[in-house]
């Protein structure tokens, strides 16, 4: 449990540093077709005025950073044998929902994953429940079901092949593509 918290804090710090380094970039969607990883940043153009409010929806610079940080979060982690969303995941998914509502032609593929513990069939079902939890949360926020697709890979695509609790924690996830 403590290892998971340290990992989460480390990932949050890494994400913050990465976003700070890329803050001058104004891209709509950076995807890598080879890896399938998608990181969304600014959803539309707009520059900040001297009052700290941009021309994009009246968001302040701090609100824009919060939105961009949330949109950059495309991997959501789960506790062992659970498919409920953390408070952090729900907060980020609100921004993803707003992005999808503002961009009705965009689609998300929600890929559910599990660690290797359990049977293949159980892990496929668990990965599906996790992907559906994200899907349901986005739909409750007003996202059209036509914009969402879920798939489960179960234990088949681990990001960490290790057999430690930290490795298992990294494999219990939903990825947005």
Summarize the main sheet.
4 strands, mixed
Overall spatial form: globular
Q: Which percent band covers the strand fraction?
A: 5-15%
Q: Helix content range of the residues, please?
A: 40-55%
DSSP summary, beta strand count: 6
Overall mean pLDDT stands at 79
Order of helices and strands: HEEHEHEHEHE
Tally of individual helices: 5
Gyration radius over CA: 17 Å
Give the distance, in angstroms, between the N- and C-terminal Cα atoms.
28 Å
Using the coordinates above, name the CATH class. Alpha Beta
Strand order of the largest sheet: 3-6-4-5
Query: What is the count of distinct domains?
Result: 1
Low-confidence sequence ranges? 13-55
CATH superfamily: OmpA-like domain
Protein model, in words:
With 177 residues, the chain is of the alpha+beta class. The chain has one domain (2-176): OmpA-like domain (60s Ribosomal Protein L30, Chain: A), CATH 3.30.1330.60. It is 43% helix and 15% strand. The strands form two sheets. Strands 3-6-4-5 form a four-stranded mixed beta sheet. Strands 1-2 form a two-stranded antiparallel sheet. Helix 4 links the parallel strand 4 and strand 5. The longest helix has 21 residues, at 120-140. The radius of gyration is 17 Å and the shape is globular. Residues 13-55 have low confidence and may be disordered.
Helices, strands, pairings?
Blueprint: H1 2-21, E1 29-31, E2 38-40, H2 61-72, E3 75-77, H3 87-102, E4 108-113, H4 120-140, E5 148-154, H5 165-171, E6 173-176
Parallel strand pairs: 4-5
Antiparallel strand pairs: 1-2, 3-6, 4-6
Helix pairs in contact: 2-3, 3-4
């Amino acid at each position: 449990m403590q290892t998971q918290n340290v990992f989460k804090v480390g990932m949050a710090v890494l994400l913050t540093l990465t976003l700070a380094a890329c803050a001058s970039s104004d891209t709509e969607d950076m995807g890598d077709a080879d890896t399938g990883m998608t990181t969304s940043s600014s959803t539309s153009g707009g520059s900040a005025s001297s009052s700290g409010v941009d021309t994009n929806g009246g968001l302040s610079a701090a609100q824009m950073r919060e939105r961009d940080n949330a949109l950059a979060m495309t991997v959501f982690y789960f506790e062992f044998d659970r498919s409920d969303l953390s408070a952090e995941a729900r907060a980020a998914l609100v921004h993803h929902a707003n992005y999808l509502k503002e961009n009705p032609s965009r689609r998300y593929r929600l890929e559910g994953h599990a660690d290797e513990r359990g049977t293949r069939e159980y892990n496929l079902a668990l990965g599906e429940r996790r992907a559906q939890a994200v899907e349901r949360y986005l739909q409750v926020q007003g996202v059209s079901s036509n914009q969402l697709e879920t798939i489960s890979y179960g234990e088949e695509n681990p990001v960490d092949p290790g057999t430690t609790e930290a490795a298992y924690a990294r494999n219990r996830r939903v990825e947005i593509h």
